[in-house]
Amino acid sequence: MSKMRRSERIVRLTQILLEHPHRVLSLTEMAEKLASAKSSLSEDLAIIRDVMEAEGLGTLETQAGAAGGVRYVPGLRADLAEQFVQQVAQRLCSGDRILPGGFLYMSDVLGQTDVLDTAGKMFASRFREAGAEFVVTVETKGIPLAVATAKYLNVPMVIVRRDHKVTEGSSVSVNYVSGSRRIQTMSLSRRSLPERTKVLIIDDFMKAGGTAKALADLMREFQVEVVGVGVFISTIDPLDKMIDNYVSLATLSEMNEATREVAITPGTYFA
């Protein structure tokens, strides 16, 4: 392989790092792949780290020693995160999005890849020290959020089903009261989660917290520890949720079906 120019090497290094968040990459292997000395790579990585931190996009963590490596830790600067939530609020603060039962139509916004990518990065940044080994969500609207979060944490994702599927094998089921005050059921295959692991729960919307509590109850059946709960939007009412210590990116602070007024403010993520 011909010697690579430094500018090209930095671009390739950045691409490799962004494609493998929270994964320790061997400096020796990257040096061989890019046909460069490790000392040159170390200088390049220092430049990349400085740019990432200056732009508020995360940082790089290095490990010293013969088997040393580097890991990209995703992040988002506070002002950029708040700007993102304000942009989302502008899209959602429309009276025609109000649905019967006190719900807000969000499917189109949560179908946009830029929204999902940024939300996943925010959740991964907030819970990066929690030690989650799996991201758990319940079908269906929370799945894209969970995928984005799991990607940036570099962990597998587990989907809890509304109905038991015969292809899932034996499963554990729990009944719970949903935000619409209906009795519903969720189930999870016994093979989905090893016992005594740690999970992060991700969902799109929280009103009273019934779904999140049911997920936490289901995790206890698997002897699994819930290390965090992240939701895209939570409602301000009721104040007393069925689950504590959740992190919401945005708060639905007002939704008046009579006047068709909607107000969304930054969530507990910014508290």
Keyword list:
2 domains, single chain, alpha/beta, Arc Repressor Mutant, subunit A, about 270 residues, Rossmann fold, 13 strands, six-stranded mixed beta sheet
Structural description of this entry:
The chain is globular. The protein has seven helices and 13 strands. It folds into two domains: 6-74, Arc Repressor Mutant, subunit A (Orthogonal Bundle), CATH 1.10.10; 78-270, Rossmann fold. It has helices at 6-19, 27-34, 38-55, 78-92, 113-126, 143-153, 210-221, and strands at 25-26, 58-63, 69-74, 98-99, 103-104, 134-138, 157-160, 171-177, 183-189, 198-206, 225-235, 246-256, 261-266. It has 271 residues and is an alpha/beta fold. InterPro entries: PRTase-like, PRTase_dom, Pur/Pyrimidine_PRTase, PuR_N, PurR_Bsub, WH-like_DNA-bd_sf, WH_DNA-bd_sf. This is Purine operon repressor PurR. Residues 117-251 form the Phosphoribosyltransferase domain. Keywords: DNA-binding, Transcription, Transcription regulation.
Secondary-structure-derived class:
alpha/beta
Helices, by number, come to: 7
Note the main sheet.
6 strands, mixed
- What's the shape? globular
| CATH topology tier name of the largest domain | Rossmann fold
The CATH class of the largest domain is identified as Alpha Beta
Mean pLDDT: 92
Question: Could you give the distance between the termini?
Answer: 51 Å
How many structural domains? 2
Low-pLDDT sequence parts: none
